[in-house]
Amino acid sequence: MEPPLAALLADGPFLHSLADGLGSPLNVLLPEAVATNAARFRAVYRRHRLTGRVYFAHKANRSGALLRRLAAEDPAAVGVDVASTEELRHALGCGFTGDRIMATGPKDAAFLWLAARVGATVNLDSPGELERLSALVRAHGLGRVAVLVRLSGFEHTTGNGGAGTRLLSRRSRFGTPVRDMEELLSALEHNADIVEFAGAAYHLDTTGVDEKARALEQCVLFMDECRARGLAPHTLDIGGGFGVGYVAEAEDWERWTTALTEAVLGVRPPMTWRGHGYGLRNEGGTVRGATALYPAYRPTAGPGYLDEILSLPAPVLGRPAATLLLEHLHDLYIEPGRSLVDQCGLSLARVLDVRPADTDAGHHLVHLAMNAGDMSLEEHGVLVDPVLVPRDETAATGDGEAVGVYLTGNLCLEGDLITRRLVFLPRLPQAGDLLAFANTAGYAMDFRAHHAQRQPVARTVAVERRGDTWRWCPDEDYWPITPMGGAVG
């Protein structure tokens, strides 16, 4: 945890005052932190002398405060990536003009029409999507639309000559396979009066920097071929996936994953509810499967990971990726989501009840005024222990040793577990205490929020530090151009 988020977590009375007034669960955001993250990404651009734009992947968080804070940044430097009609409408309402918006993801007719109408760049996944966009533009007399074409199925041969090993990038349901690009190029040429072909893009669901560098190089080669056919692409969008380091020390992560394997084998007590293996299973004394977990320790993440990609020599052309972009005078677009909202918020949950668990290990169940839809770190395989924020520090009890608890939600479902694993806290919580889940702004605090059993969905507030106090306002009332209102902590 970096200083702004750590300082917020250290102010227990302020957090309790927020939860008392606004209920549990509650999401708390730091809008200034997202601007800091954008600046860090832009610093990597400057280091490599690159031009282009950082597009925030809006799907990572529904907040208006974060979007409005980014809208106040340099228009040439920061934009927003939207993946639905409602996200597009939200971005426009938060101050983004159409020329700063990238439309991605599956697109229905309404999404394509509105994107074209406001002048957004459309990131196309197939020749069919291009034809549907072109038909809408013609039918409604809209202006020419800037488009990127997203590619997939990249191939690369290692070794000398034709005797090397052929490598294929992992499959993706996004984009047109490179082997089918002839149909795509023909569609671009056929619709040149309707669309302005701005460049290429890719989306790879991998942490492998080598694989992403290969994809970048092949997109550059693809755009070379486009130029040879009389087209004039000038932009390469390498998507997102820059990651977040949730755990500070590699040893902590390695120790836990090793212990999970031992627990699955039965050589140590279970570490999870009902022996859940996170993808691992015991088959006759042998561990099978693979852990379905986010790599919580990342040696490089966010801007550092982008820097690593840009510094890696391309496998065929042999020059760093940044050099290829400079040589071809290409702009670089990126679409960070999780990494752009790193350190930008936390989720609070009130402790409702504490009672012994039905196990022989002396563990407890801690029932929270929250459910698994409100805080979905577990669903995304992110394992982060919450921070205990006592209601009354003087009433704290315990012998100083950590206690193991399972965190359960407020739905009448056996499967409503906030954590499937044993969580260790410095002492046993009491009813009225808060648990604060740090760094939940990326895909965790509202990605699956719902009104099941008419339980309240978490409200969201924006906070900022003014001198020695915190100020807050509802997420929907935050604007970066006016002083933050609300109560003083």
From TrEMBL:
List modified residues, type N6-(pyridoxal phosphate)lysine.
59
Sections of the chain in a coiled coil: none
What GO molecular functions are on record for this protein?
diaminopimelate decarboxylase activity
Keywords of this protein's UniProt record, alphabetized? Pyridoxal phosphate
Report the domain of life of the source organism: Bacteria
Necessary cofactors: pyridoxal 5'-phosphate
PANTHER family, sorted = DIAMINOPIMELATE DECARBOXYLASE, GROUP IV DECARBOXYLASE
**Which residue intervals define the domain Orn/DAP/Arg decarboxylase 2 N-terminal in the entry?**
51-263
Is Repeat among this UniProt entry's keywords? no
Which Pfam families has this protein been placed in? Orn_Arg_deC_N
Is the Protein transport keyword given for this protein?
A: no
Q: Which residues form the active site?
A: 412
Protein name (record): Y4yA family PLP-dependent enzyme
User: For this chain's UniProt record, which GO biological process terms are given?
Assistant: lysine biosynthetic process via diaminopimelate
